[in-house]
Write a structure and sequence with these properties.
This protein is mostly helical and 447 residues long. Helices cover 83% and strands 0% of the residues. The longest helix has 37 residues, at 45-81.
Length: 447
């Protein structure tokens, strides 16, 4: 923890060294999302629809784990930059204790609400049954997910990206291998159907956590004198963690609201939306990997009073994310039918999906602005401004746009709402980011 490389190493090589391991692990994670859905789609179209309806709650669980982890990450990086290693250790330990509590509460609540939640969007008894069966197994691993997310952010906060890369990749690869084995019952394993997909995911997550635990306790980072939560530290963790969680959980609200709008036209569009959100992880997760590499760098340099480096880090990451979004746009324009064909063989669904991908893809490039700005603000411990950006993207702009455009153009209007929102959100993001960094970062040492 005494290493000062985050404020001394040249910026571009530093960002690459911090981000590339996370980008690689995020790409593998993206591949897992696609492969997982691919195998579920082989069960039936109803199974894929059930997976699409469960996804918002699954995303909320991940958002809670990652969001609170972001709070821990930002607080640790800040204190390391300011040279206060005692407070950094305190943030790590108390953050872990709180994450365990979060995991237990979410396990009970999420499993309990699923039957009622699914009935809000479909009248199909088969889809509801498949969704309940999948979620009961998947959500049993919630505690493992929340604790794993904390360890991921702890290692990132001290610049140890290789550990998170290896752990995430091992978990994802295990998941990919086990999916067909547990779903279809190869070898000595029984055929478990959709529960097999959930169990494969859970086993992969458990392996990731196991690797984190071995490395973490070998290094003896937890200090018992910090286990009892202190009021000031808890407030600091939640002041960033809650906005970050809401930030990441907003897509769950968005998807559920869009499902309600699309259900008025056909369940085909719900399936298309679900497939899109699986595919878009291949674009946004690598961008998120770069943002994850950026957060501790910005937090550390902010704590060290290096305002010029903070600005340079932001600009370089914005360009890197822009390149990823250009590639994503090209893929959606060139091969949308082939992408949809991975998850369904119904011609009408494929055609509806082709239209959706081409229209939604128009907003990818400009979305780099809001994605980068939101992540940078979290690294600067400015969780509320970051949340405002996400509220604009996922609630304030897109939901009214989707509602009114669907009234004018039918279900296709929902797809147009995506690029309209990204353009407006990019402008708002730049305004919020510039206002938020107007105060000199040299005041950071006084906090």
């Amino acid at each position: 923890m005494n290493d000062t490389f985050m404020k001394e190493k040249p910026i571009l090589p530093l960002i690459l060294s911090m981000s590339l391991p996370m980008v690689l692990s995020m790409l593998v994670n993206s591949l897992y999302n696609i492969v997982d859905s691919f195998f579920v789609a082989q069960i039936s179209e109803e199974a894929m629809t059930a997976l699409s309806l469960v996804y918002p709650v699954q995303n909320f669980i991940n958002a809670a784990g990652i969001g609170f982890g972001v709070g821990i990450n930002a607080v640790i990086a800040f204190y390391l930059g300011a040279g206060d290693h005692e407070k950094a250790d305190q943030a790590a330990t108390q953050g872990l204790v709180l994450a365990v509590i979060h995991g237990v509460v979410m396990t009970v609540c999420c499993i309990a609400i699923m039957p009622v939640f699914l009935r809000m969007f479909t009248a199909s008894a088969e889809v509801i049954e498949l969704g309940v069966r999948y979620s009961a197994v998947a959500f049993a691993f919630t505690l493992i997910v929340t604790v794993s997310m904390v360890f991921e952010k702890l290692f990132q906060a001290v610049g140890n990206m290789k550990t998170t890369m290896i752990s995430l990749m091992c978990g994802c690869i295990t998941n990919i291998v086990l999916d067909p084995v547990l779903i279809f019952g190869y070898g000595p394993f029984p055929e478990m159907g959709i529960e097999g997909a959930a169990l494969a995911t859970g086993i992969g997550q458990a392996l990731t956590l196991a690797i984190y635990l071995v490395i973490y306790f070998v290094r003896s980072i937890i200090r018992r004198q910090h286990i009892l939560p202190g009021k000031k530290m808890v407030i600091k963790l939640y002041s960033i963690g809650i906005p970050a969680t809401l930030n990441l959980a907003l897509p769950s609200l968005l998807i559920s609201a869009l499902n309600a709008i699309l259900a008025a036209y056909s369940e085909v569009y719900i399936l298309v939306l679900g497939i899109y959100y699986k595919l878009q992880t291949f674009i946004y997760l690598p961008a998120n990997g770069i943002v994850q590499g950026m957060r501790p760098l910005i937090g550390y340099n902010y704590g060290a009073g290096e305002s010029k480096r903070v600005s340079q880090i932001y600009q370089i990451v914005l360009c890197m994310n822009g390149i990823i979004m250009v590639l994503g746009t090209a893929i959606c324009l060139l091969i949308p039918g082939q992408l949809m064909g991975l998850f369904t063989h119904t011609e009408a669904t494929i055609q509806a999906g082709e239209t959706a991908l081409r229209i939604i893809g128009a907003g990818f490039i400009v979305s780099a602005v809001s994605v980068t700005s939101s992540g940078a603000l979290e690294g600067l411990r400015k969780g509320t401004p970051s949340l405002l950006i996400s509220i604009c993207r996922y609630v304030v702009v897109i939901l009214p746009a989707a509602f009114w455009l669907s009234r004018l153009f039918g279900a296709v209007g929902v797809w147009h709402a995506f690029w309209v929102t990204e353009v407006i959100a990019a402008v708002i993001s730049l305004i919020i980011y510039r206002k938020s960094i107007a105060k000199p970062v040299t005041t950071a040492r006084k906090e």
